[in-house]
Design goal:
Layout lengths: L3 H9 L5 H16 L11 E11 L4 E7 L5 E2 L1 E4 L6 H13 L4 E3 L6 E7 L8 E12 L11 E8 L10 H11 L2
Parallel strand pairs: 1-7
Antiparallel strand pairs: 1-2, 1-4, 2-3, 2-8, 5-7, 6-7
């Protein structure tokens, strides 16, 4: 029962390209096969949710330099049992940015991605089945860097490649620039 909302959203989602479509299909299969897909304790992988936050002028996006991965990425994190991925993305964005007002541009999925997380001392390598949503916030609001980040920064969309070459991030940027 708890997987129905995500099944519905994923089945309605229109992928941006063939690569994203294949990830969408992988996520649907993963959810179908794993009743506990929202639990971090599922060591093969789990559902995560991310927030791509853009400013009101739609010229910049808020990125974190992820402390463990050492990369510029969108904010996000583990579902920890919560099947409402939009809620998870919002919760993580608020926790990781210090922003007080973040609004979803839509409740629909904005992007999906499957990526491998390297093994660490207490956990094996596993996959994050990431459901991403688009949000908007005031880029003048004060940011608070948490212990999960080395840095937080509003990055101009048209200069993102100076910060990252991660295809999943660049795909989201292309989606915004071509809206």
């Amino acid at each position: 029962m708890h997987r129905e909302l995500l099944f519905s959203k994923l089945n309605q989602y229109q992928s941006f390209d063939v690569h994203e479509r294949s990830m969408q299909e992988r996520i649907l299969e993963f959810i179908k096969e794993n009743i506990n897909c929202f639990e971090r304790s599922l060591l093969i992988g789990h559902i995560t949710a991310s927030a791509l936050i853009i400013n009101k002028q739609k010229t910049h996006t808020l990125m974190t330099h992820h402390q463990k991965l050492g990369k510029w990425l969108q904010l996000g994190g583990h579902s920890d049992g919560d099947p409402d991925t939009l809620n998870v993305a919002l919760r993580e964005a608020l926790e990781e940015s210090g922003l007080k007002a973040i609004e979803p541009i839509s409740e629909d999925i904005f992007d999906v991605d499957v990526h491998e997380i390297p093994a660490r001392k207490n956990e094996p390598a596993h996959f994050h089945y990431d459901i991403r949503f688009l949000f908007e916030a005031d880029d003048a609001e004060k940011l608070i860097i948490t212990n999960e980040s080395n840095d937080l920064r509003w990055i101009p969309l048209d200069r993102m490649e100076e910060y990252t070459t991660e295809e999943s991030v660049m795909r989201m940027v292309r989606k915004i620039l071509h809206r």
